[in-house]
Amino acid sequence: MAKALITWGGWDGHEPDRVAALFAQMLQAEGMQVQVTDSLACFDEPAALAGLNLIVPVWTMSTIEKAQSENVAAAVAGGVGLAGCHGGMCDAFRNDVLWQFMTGAQWVAHPGNDGVRYGVRMTGNSPLTEGIADFEVVSEQYYLHVDPAVKVHAVCDFPVVPGPHSTNGPVAMPVGFTKMWGEGRVYYNALGHQANVIDHGPAREMLRRGFLWAARR
Predict the structure, then answer these.
(1) What is the CATH number of the domain that holds 176?
(2) Which range marks the domain in which residue 143 is found?
(3) Residue 155: which residues within 8 A CB-CB, separation 6 or more?
(4) What mean pLDDT is reported for the chain?
(5) How far is residue 53's CA from residue 48's CA, in Å, rounded to a whole number?
(6) Model confidence over 149-169: pLDDT tens digits?
(7) How many folded domains does the chain comprise?
(8) Which partner for 75 in 34, 49, 141, 148 could form a disulfide, CB atoms 3.0-4.6 Å apart?
């Protein structure tokens, strides 16, 4: 049976406990054995990490020990999948550049804050998005600094809310993307400010497929 580790914590505003529970339910429904913890101590044991199929971080604006970050990076490089969403993965540990390199992006802004209405548009031709129609969401719209190596599967358009970034003209910002880290698959989705954004519809389905892809299921 495939094994997944979900670890949650950090800023309470992102409802990490509720998001972690949602992800656990999602993966259990796919027949995976899921461990859920609210501690980063799970990253202290390289051998245990290497025995997983998938790691799902749900942390925002927190800190991680250098050895913990290195242990996760080594496990993923060895073939363990890594997948997550919103600030829980790509605004998890702002001071850890290895984490940012591995995950493929870092949050830098959300013009308009929460409650912005914007469209999510599928791009390319991939099983991760096949049959999923473009849709609108009312939530935070993430402006990311993104690794040019990622493969983008969905985008949103900036600017929607005016700001100093607007003078640069239209920008298609990745919402969902994949990349490789050694032998490991990495999936990220920028949606998920709170659990009610990703607990239904196309946003949920995108994440479900991304998790299974990262876990090679």
Answers:
(1) 3.40.50.880
(2) 3-214
(3) 120, 121, 123, 172, 173, 174, 175
(4) 98
(5) 11
(6) 999 999 999 999 999 999 999
(7) 1
(8) 49
